Description:
Strand content of chain A: 5-15%
Structural class of chain B: mainly alpha
CATH topology of the domain at 49-214 in chain A: Glutaredoxin
Shape of chain A: flat
Number of strands of chain A: 6
Largest sheet of chain B: 2 strands, antiparallel
Shape of chain B: elongated
CATH superfamily of the domain at 49-214 in chain A: Glutaredoxin
Strand order of the largest sheet of chain B: 1-2
Number of helices of chain A: 9
CATH architecture of chain B: Up-down Bundle
Strand order of the largest sheet of chain A: 1-6-5-3-4-2
Distance between the termini of chain A: 102 Å
CATH class of chain B: Mainly Alpha
CATH topology of chain B: de novo design (two linked rop proteins)
Mean pLDDT of chain B: 83
Strand content of chain B: under 5%
Number of strands of chain B: 2
CATH architecture of the domain at 49-214 in chain A: 3-Layer(aba) Sandwich
Low-confidence stretches of chain A: 147-151
Largest sheet of chain A: 6 strands, mixed
Radius of gyration of chain A: 25 Å
Distance between the termini of chain B: 20 Å
Oligomer: heterodimer
Number of domains of chain B: 1
Largest interface: A-B, 37 and 36 residues
Structural class of chain A: alpha+beta
Amino acid sequence: MAKKTVQKANNKQFAGVLVAVAIIGVAALGYVLTHRGPTVIIVDPKIPAGAAEGHLMGNADAPVQVLEFGDFECPGCGNFANVTEPDVRTRLINTGVVGFHFFDFPLTQHLNSFTAHLAAACADDQGKFWEMHDRLYAGQDEWSDLTDPTMKSPLPVFRRYAKEMGMDVAKWEDCVTTQKYTARIKGNQAEGVRRNVAQTPTIIIGNKQVNGLTYDEFKKLVDQVLAESGKAKADSAKKPAAAKKGD
Amino acid sequence: MTRRMIIAVLSLAGVFLATYLTLYKLGYLETLACGTGSCEVVQASKWSKLFGQPVALWGVGFYLAMFGVAFTGTLARYVESRAIGVALALMSGSGVLFSGWLTYIEVARLHAICRYCVGSALIVTALFVLSALDLRRGAAASSDPTHPRA
């Protein structure tokens, strides 16, 4: 009888703890899934670019200029490049709404990242920066696992990419191994530090600085910039008219 | 609570932990809440996949199986079942071995420690200890003529 009572109490306690763990677990997962949107901080969009030279896709005179500070080895950047960027290119860059600038921001904990940035910068010499950019992100799983410093360099993988892209591989490899664009990459990185970039991908659209975002979130920020610039234009058009009336 | 009940509770916690890592690996989460950045290194490594699927997804399967077996073992009909005790000990034992190998990879090959992987390794170790104690209790009970087993 006493054994049964103890067992009943045990079962009750067990059910209570199970339900509590299930509720906490579901709530925590629900929270991270619903709050995965970008954290927005306000920055001054008029900060001059300095000596940094990003890689431009689209029109430099497009009404909205977007800056990305990215690391080729960062999974979040890979996700942005492979999932969000194709839509951004088709719907916003190719239509002339957005000019997209990629700035190198290799993180120190990603041991192969700097070589990857050199590989992309050197591909730019042959007009294939964006092709290499896409290939590096699409193949991230293939080379980013070479994180052990005692393992071979990721260069053979990048060399294969260069070959597949039909590049002059010898010329490209000479550029990579002599680290021709180290200063340029470091310049882009310094620009990110100057803009308080602390993680990748960091995307700057107008006065909003965000960390990774979906196409819909991206479009929303672009629309905001367009609406603000439209309003500014309307205001400046009104001012001369008002001044004339005053005369 | 009995040991099997604690095993079931810990396994359920493990299900959520492994699901979180799986969601990140599959791209549903942009970042892991991990201040050191080491989680990304571990999650981006070639060892984060097994037979083409994220290791964390296998972890979800493992914890679900542990939960199912432990929960069944708490039902009145199976409370004294030695088969359940053996299954729990074997499963958690293989879990400890696999976790140990993953921890070795983190320390010796990647030089990066992911706090979630450490959390999972601790849960698996606790599951193994509890399963071993449960099995020992079962063995002691079966050799005790005053304690008839089902």
